[in-house]
Structure formats: C-alpha cells, structure tokens
Amino acid sequence: MKLFDEKNFIHQLSIDCVIFGYKAGELKVLIPKILLKKPLYSLPGGFIYVDESIDKAALRILEERTGINDIYLEQYYVFGNENRINNDLLNNLEEFSQQMNQLEFEENGLNWLTNRFVSIGYYALVDINKVNPKMGEMDESVDWYNVKSLPKLIMDHNEMVEKALETLRRNLDEKLIGFNLLPETFTMREVQELYEAIYDKPFARNNFQKKILDLDVLERLEKKFTGAANKAPYLYRFRR
Amino acid sequence: MKLFDEKNFIHQLSIDCVIFGYKAGELKVLIPKILLKKPLYSLPGGFIYVDESIDKAALRILEERTGINDIYLEQYYVFGNENRINNDLLNNLEEFSQQMNQLEFEENGLNWLTNRFVSIGYYALVDINKVNPKMGEMDESVDWYNVKSLPKLIMDHNEMVEKALETLRRNLDEKLIGFNLLPETFTMREVQELYEAIYDKPFARNNFQKKILDLDVLERLEKKFTGAANKAPYLYRFRR
DNA sequence: AATTTATTGTCTAATTATTAGACAATAAGT
DNA sequence: ACTTATTGTCTAATAATTAGACAATAAATT
C-alpha cells in the first residue's frame, strides 16, 4: 500500500481548494467527508509534485474531485500559522487509511504528513451541473453545502472559506468571473440571484440589469418560455 | 561553517520581500547585490523555520534587512512555477559563500538549496528615513532603486516586483496604506506626489486634496514655513 | 376573446459623485 | 507696496448612480 509517496511531493506544503458552485439561489461549497469513526469535514486538498507548478497541482486536485479540467481557479491566500498541524489525523492514526497504526505509518514513510503544513488556498468557480463530485481515497461522501451553513471543518478550513468568499466578492465585478458559476445560458434574473447569493444582499432589478448589460459582455439569445403567466425573459450567454 | 541549517527550515519554500520606500517623488525598492564575480541582484528573502508562522518569518527577514520591526507588510502572491530554480546559485557554487565547491556544499548539507523552490511574495511599506539597510551574509551592497528602473534581478524577481506594485495600487485607496511610506508629518503636496509616483500618473491638485481630506484620517497640524515665497502649507499626520 | 396576473425590459427624473475652472489667501522676494 | 509661486477652498459642469414609473407580454382566468 502506498497512499502518498513522500519522495515525489514537496514536504510541509499543501494546496486546499474552496470549490464554489451555485444552485437555486444558494452559493455552495464542495465538502468531502472523511472516512473515520468521528466524521470529519475538510476542504479538498492535496500536495505538489517536486516538478509540478502550483497552478497545475491545483488543477490536478480539482480535476480529481470534479472531473472538470477547464475550471476557473485562482490562488488567493497562503495559510501559514505555526500551529497548522493536522491534529485530527494524529488523533486518528489507527483509523486513518484502513486501520494503519503509528508504526506502520512510519514504516510506510508517511510521517511527514504529521508535520506542520503551509497551505496555499485556491478558490474555484464551477457550473454545478457539470460537476460529478468524486470521492477521495479516504472519503465517505462529498456534498455541496450552502456557504452560509457549513459544517465545522478541520483546522482553519472554515476561515479559509471565509477568506475565499471575501476574495470572490472583491473580484466579482472587476474580473467578471461570476458567469463561471452559471450554465452556458441564463436569464438576467438568474444573474441577479447569483449576485445576491454571493453578496448576501438584494439589488434593485432595473439598475442591476442596466449595470450588467453595460458591461457589454453578454450576448442576447432567444426568449425562454417557462410556461409562467408573464412576459418571457431573454436568455443570455457570456462571451469572450 | 553553517550558513543555513536545513534541519530547521521548511524545505523548498521561501519568502521574498519587495520593500517599498519613497523619496523625492520616486517609489523605490530595496535591492541587495550578491557577492559574486558576476554581480547578481536579488530580492531580500529567506526561509521559514518549522515552528514559525510565515508572517513572523517575513517580519524577521525584514527586520534583518531594515532594522525595523513594526513594519507594514502584506502577503500578496505565491510564485510556484516548476522551473523556479536558482540557476545563478548553481552556476556559481564555487564562489558562493567563500569559495565553497560542490563537494563541500553537499557535505555541509546545503544541497537542498539547489532544489526547486516555491516562494511566498510579501511586500512591505517603510518610511525610507527610518531604514538602515543591512547587508545579508552574502551581499556586497544594498541600495534603493527606482521601481521604474530596476536592474535585472535573478529568477522571476522582476516579475515579483511588478505584481507587488499592481497589488499596492489595488490596495492603496481601499486600505489607506500609503502613509506608511511617508514620515510622521507631511504636506498635502507630498501625499499627492507619493500617489503620483505609485500610480505613475498626475492628479488634479484641488480634487486630490478634497478626496484625501474627505477620507477623514488626517490630522491637521501647524503650518510648515519652508522659506519659499508663497503660502506655507499645513503639515498633516495620519491618525488611527 | 377580453381580462387578469406576474414579471420583464426600459425610460426618465432625482440624487449623488466626480471633474474642471476659478479665485482669494499668503510667505517671502523685489 | 508690489510681485511671485503656491496653497486652500469654493462653485459650476459633467458623469454616475439610484429610485420611480410604465408599457410589453406569456399564460391563466373569465
């Protein structure tokens, strides 16, 4: 058995990903549940090969979890407190990966995993419909959680999500990255509801529509007849 | 001789600092010159102890170079291309640190320095008058260079400065951090010239003054009589 | 087929923010 | 007393944002 080969990874450096998705008015985060007696929730993460760029490592980790490889992602912060140690791993060594005990753990050259880690935070924006969440080797399940009601995550991972959301908010208007969270085509109302979910505040419909159209990045397509008893909205597509 | 003790540092992870200062209308960066036959310019950098937070490591490195310990600094980006290897070091092994050769280098357990490195970029803002630039163990000199005319630096360090400047510009208005570059008291003209140096563009004097005063973070002190044949400007101090 | 309902797209007025122009105040030189 | 260069601030012009209004319309209801 060889879960991780220490020779190939940069030690004490990891990547953790906040994967944002959007559905039905809620901004969501993909959270795996780790297979242990006491359920543990953790951001999807991984390590960097010694001959791999950190961006490629993040893309690889994301593809492993989502099956998507042309994902929007951005490095946003490094979490490097001196006490960033995976105590949950230490406390659960015997259960970790098929009841391996401390001795076997060391024999397998896995001791480096119990050291202090510096973690590079990435956040990703995905069309939630395109994602086929895959479990990691140690996971029991993977689920989407509303960013406003996440479970307690290990270490400082809740703080990592918080900071990712702050960065997303700062970048949303400037970089026009929000459309990565929507399907190929969408209505203006869907864009507005997405923005309202991200900023957690309402926008005025008339002015929001003007602001988005003035960006000059949307292409208006045919109307979308929903069957509702009202004027049918246009569909739009993000271009460029 | 023991320059670096590999046991105590996190391997393949480094910190590099872009130290900004301001003088006479010019935004400057502190650049050490490394002691080798061919002169090499490099950002001041260092490594992280295994029991040290990355922020503390950055502060320690900055204090070593500037003598200041209450410095404003901010982590801004991680540079992690797979080819970030210090070729200049590799090519100059025999000169590196008192003519150490490849064999001695290995015997001293310094081989880890020739691996690929991931570097966390920090930028710092200092009052240039308070700084007493100190040379590192391998430096021949340390000098302030105008950010617009830097020498060719090793590896991707020029790119690191460029990205630090972009981040400084993005944060300047939002976080009001520019005053860290000025002495305790200053005139409005000096603030404006600082902003003009950072953004590399002129501002209208009347509106600039209004904008800065409207921030409500400056305290107006006595007038500054310069001896010039014109109205004496007020001195201001940044508060909070 | 006319009427009603809920929503969409857009227009205009009101408000606020930004930019440009102007000028009095003033410290020291002539 | 007059001149010069610069400072501090005011006001008008312009631009951007916000709030209010209303016609258009897809389908259900009468």
Can you put this structure into words, describing what you see?
The structure is a homodimer of 240-residue chains. Chain A has two domains: 6-178, Alpha-Beta Complex (Nucleoside Triphosphate Pyrophosphohydrolase), CATH 3.90.79.10; 182-238, Orthogonal Bundle (Arc Repressor Mutant, subunit A), CATH 1.10.10.10. Chain A has seven helices and ten strands. Chain A has helices spanning 54-66, 87-91, 96-99, 102-107, 157-175, 188-199, 205-214; strands at 9-23, 26-34, 40-41, 45-49, 72-79, 118-125, 139-146, 185-186, 218-223, 234-238. In chain A, a hairpin with a 5-residue loop joins strand 2 and strand 3 (40-41). The longest helix of chain A is centred in the C-terminal third of the chain and has 19 residues, at 157-175. The termini of chain A are far apart. By secondary structure, chain A is an alpha+beta fold. The mean pLDDT of chain A is 90. Helices cover 29% and strands 28% of the residues of chain A. In chain A, the strands form two sheets. In chain A, strands 1, 2, 3, 4, 5, 6 and 7 form a seven-stranded mixed beta sheet that branches. The A-B interface holds A 10-13, 48, 50-56, 75, 77-78, 80-82, 115-116, 118, 120 and B 10-13, 48, 50-56, 75, 77-78, 80-82, 115-116, 118, 120. The first copy, chain A, binds a DNA duplex (30 and 30 nucleotides) through helix 7.
